[in-house]
Structures are given as C-alpha cells and as structure tokens.
Amino acid sequence: MVFYFKARPEAGDYTIFMGLDKHENEELIKFGFPEDIWFHVDKMSSAHVYVRLHKGNKVNNIDVVYTPWQNLKKTASMDVGQVGFHNSKMVRTVRVEKRINEVVNRLNRTKVERKPDLKAEREAVNAAERAERKLQLRDKKRREEMDRLEKEKQAEVRSYKNLMVADKMTSNKDMASTHKSLQEMEEDFM
Question: This protein's superkingdom (predicted)?
Fold first, then answer.
C-alpha cells in the first residue's frame, strides 16, 4: 500500500508519496522515476518518502536524508527496505528540530490510499520516453537527408560537368550547314 499526499497545490504540480512498510519501500525503490526525490529519517527504521516533481516523523531532533531516486543503490545483499547510494556527494541531510503539526495535519487531510501498479507506471513512462526519442531521431534523420539532398543540388549547380556536354555543342561544320553567313551568325549572337 502506498500513501499519496498533495502539498500546497497552489505551489506547483508535485506529489508526495510513501510506502506503508519496508515491502512497499522495496517496490518504490525498484520502480521510481528519475525526477523523484527520496527522503528518509537517518539511522532509524521509517518509511521512504518521495516527492515527485512534474517531473512521517514522530520524534524531535532527527536528521532527514534525501537524494534523487537515480542515486539510490540496491544490492542483493541488502535487507528488504535498505538502500545505499551510488554517489554520497549527492546525498543531503537536513536537521528537523521539532515536528510541525500544522504541516503534518495539512498533509494528512490530503492523504489518499491506493495500491498502484508501480511497475506498469514505470513501464508506461519508459515507453513514452522511448517513443519521444524515436520521433526525435526520425525527425533528425529526415532533416539530415533533406540537408544532404540540398547540398547535392547546390554542388550540381556549381559543377562544370554539364557545361561541356557533346549533345549541346555545335561545331563550325554544323554552323556552316545552316547556310547562314558569318555576318548573319554574328547578328544572331548579338
């Protein structure tokens, strides 16, 4: 089970969600989005909390660690719900001196409980991203082909290969066979 919250809808389009226990935490770890930010109470067993940008603490004086979802590392030797980090420099810690009940109460009023198919959601986003990349690649190839054809056309225009084509040339003998005098030909030329 995953809990979803809406925090200050007027502040922007983002969702806060968290797993009920370590098993849901595993699913959230496995199928997060790159834009998700992960939060956890440091050195204590607690829910993993995520903020999804578009795109619960009951103890005082705690440290909350957070990092982008992409920085979470899960190895086979880790316990259920346990995570590590690929890059510790991307992990931030914030000290929470005192629980602010107004914020917690406001969030609890927006709480919605769902059983999402996290894998299907992740696959849908991946499919949409692949389709977008494929479309961009197709457009790029089309533009490159149009550029190539335009360059060939411009090269043909600047080329001398059509200047001295035998079919388009006339010799003095051909000119003499038209029975025009030299003066008539000069007049035609001018």
Answer: Eukaryota
